[in-house]
Write a structure and sequence with these properties.
- The complex is a heterodimer of chains A (about 290) and B (about 210).
- Chain A has about 290 residues and is α+β, with helices and mostly antiparallel strands.
- Chain A has 2 domains: about 80 residues, N-terminal domain of TfIIb (Single Sheet), CATH 2.20.25.680; about 200 residues, Naphthalene 1,2-dioxygenase Alpha Subunit, Chain A, domain 1 (Alpha-Beta Complex), CATH 3.90.380.10.
- Chain A is built from 5 helices and 16 strands.
- Chain A has a 7-stranded antiparallel β-sheet with strand order 8-14-13-12-11-10-9. In chain A, strands 2-3-4-5 form a 4-stranded antiparallel β-sheet, with no helix packed on it.
- The longest helix of chain A is centred in the last third of the chain and has 19 residues.
- Chain B has 2 domains: about 100 residues, Rieske Iron-sulfur Protein, CATH 2.102.10; about 80 residues, TATA-Binding Protein.
- Helix content of chain B is about 15%, strand content about 35%.
- Chain B is built from 2 helices and 16 strands.
- The longest helix of chain B is centred in the C-terminal third of the chain and has 20 residues.
- Classes of the chains: A alpha+beta (about 290), B alpha+beta (about 210).
- At the A-B interface, helix 3 of A face loops of B.
- Chain A: Pfam families: VanA_C (PF19112).
């Protein structure tokens, strides 16, 4: 390939040349830069009107893009960011549900986001309940252009599927993973039958075993007050955080027989295969 | 492989899962309702979540993440809630370590080729376990240097308050250890426990002090 890993400090080219989320634009401080980390490097992120500036600490400016309410940057030469057309739909409320620092690798967080089987045990009484633990068969594929993993026809019984829910329902999910550390969930909207709420997990890869998980909401809900929407997402995420921080090893194992997947883990199996195809080495064990 | 102390019997209370570390190996310890003590790799074979977060159901341990259940004794997975109709692969099993309970302590070996247990007093009360931020070998050298009688590489004895006190060192990691004490029952328990607690705390301060 002629690509020298030394130019990227040992980081694989796919990871090096992607856009990565480095903060929620609305939540950047009004004055001064915020210090954070990207792929193990210290960086600063500063709001500039509707744009932003990202710099290596004590070094040069990095590429910057503001999209979907977040600031994105890259250590390399990034191509286009993935499409999220729902962001531009006029009747949606777009907001950052919550951002949590988590001591885990970026792919562990994505794999957990794609996982339905934990709902009855980790999100008991909200996204699942122990009386309905079975995961029905669903479809998973890596897109023909290799650019994303898609899981569809996912059905699960949820006692309280969203902040606006009034009772238990069988919900239909569809997942897209258009970026190794970003996953998007399309979920039946309780307010607008036939349409989907969109919930995205944008993971900032601070290091191989430290992340900031941002839950982005693009939802069809004009009524639920903002604090209640945020509280719902926070409540769910604080249930996931101790699980993620107690997964060993912290980096996602891509070698065979590291874990014992079952049918319900089809999405995880496809996601791991896709990471191997991309040549991702950041945050994984090969 | 040698047996090393990893917990006091009282640490394995009913329906609890205790977390221990031996030579860098994270271990989940739990007692079934029938008394069986289980020492398993602290990692669910499914997705790697620590089993010490799980639920002790009395005869099975349930993983916190997906509710998979593993049988006491065999460690075999006997229930996968996501697929209640099964089948469960026969090889799906928690990784077990040899474990023995003796003298009020729980001993674990990391391999099957186990050596004999240390010789312990028949009736003894366990003292408060003391974690120390120094390697086991350094603490063994310090105890030997202080004139304690060595009963094994990581096993010492001394007389305190008229009782024989055994100190057994658990090599937790390359840089930390835990000292488990057993005191002869002939002494009155509480004054000796207080005395040993203060004595071991002061020893720890000296051991951990940077030169």
């Amino acid at each position: 390939m002629g690509f020298k890993m030394t130019e990227t400090g040992g980081i694989d080219p796919d990871t090096w040349n992607r856009w990565h989320v480095v903060g929620c634009h609305d939540e950047l401080p009004d004055d001064g830069a915020r210090a954070t980390r990207l792929l193990g490097r210290a960086i600063t992120v500063e709001r500039r009107g509707s744009g932003a500036e990202v710099r290596l600490t004590g070094g040069g400016a990095l590429p910057v893009k503001v999209a979907y309410g977040y600031v994105w940057s890259s250590l390399g030469t990034p191509g286009p960011l993935f499409e999220l057309p729902e962001h531009a739909e006029a009747d949606r409320r777009n907001l950052n549900g919550c951002s949590f620092f988590v001591r885990t690798s970026p792919p562990r967080a994505i794999e957990n986001f794609l996982d339905m089987a934990h709902f009855p045990f980790v999100h008991t009484g909200i996204l699942g309940e122990e009386a309905h633990p079975d995961v029905k068969d669903y479809d998973v594929a890596i897109s023909t252009d290799g650019r994303e993993v898609v899981a569809s026809n996912c059905h699960f019984y949820q006692p309280k599927a969203a902040a606006a829910s009034t009772g238990g329902v069988d919900v239909t999910y569809r997942y897209r993973v258009p970026h190794p550390w970003c996953a998007i969930l399309y979920k039946d909207s309780p307010a607008k039958p036939g349409r989907s709420d969109v919930i995205a997990l944008f993971v900032q890869p601070c290091g191989e075993e430290e992340i900031v998980a941002n839950l982005a909401l693009f939802i069809l809900d004009d009524d639920t007050p903002l604090p209640a929407l945020r509280r719902f997402q926070q409540q769910i995420f604080v249930q996931d955080k101790p699980i993620l921080e107690n997964q060993m090893p912290r980096r996602l194992p891509l070698y065979p027989r590291a874990d014992s997947p079952v049918r319900a883990d089809k999405a995880s199996i496809a996601y791991r295969r896709w990471l191997r195809q991309l040549g991702t080495s950041f945050g994984v064990l090969s | 492989m040698s047996y090393h102390p990893v917990a006091s019997s009282r640490d394995l209370a009913g329906r609890h899962v205790f977390q221990a570390c031996l030579l860098g190996q994270d271990i989940a310890l739990w007692r079934a309702d029938d008394g069986t003590v289980n020492a398993w790799e602290n990692r669910c074979p499914h997705r790697g979540v620590r089993l010490s977060l799980g639920v002790n159901l009395g005869d099975r341990l349930m993983c916190r993440y997906h509710g998979w259940r593993y049988d006491s004794g065999s460690g075999a997975c006997s229930h996968i809630p996501a697929h209640p109709e099964g089948p469960i692969p026969a090889t799906l099993c928690a990784r077990r370590f040899p474990v023995i309970e003796a003298g009020g302590l729980v001993f674990v070996a990391l391999g099957d080729d186990t050596a004999a247990l240390p010789t312990l007093p028949e009736t003894a009360i366990p003292l408060r376990a003391l974690p120390v931020g120094r390697p086991a070998e350094a603490i063994a050298a310090a105890l030997a240097g202080a004139g304690l009688a060595a009963a094994g590489p990581l096993h010492f004895a001394e007389t305190q308050g008229g009782a024989t006190v055994h100190l057994l060192i658990q090599p937790a990691s390359g840089t930390t250890c835990v000292i488990h004490g057993l005191a002869d029952m002939s002494a009155e328990a509480l004054p000796l426990q207080r005395h040993m607690s203060r004595l071991m705390e002061s020893r720890r301060r000296a051991w951990e002090a940077r030169p």
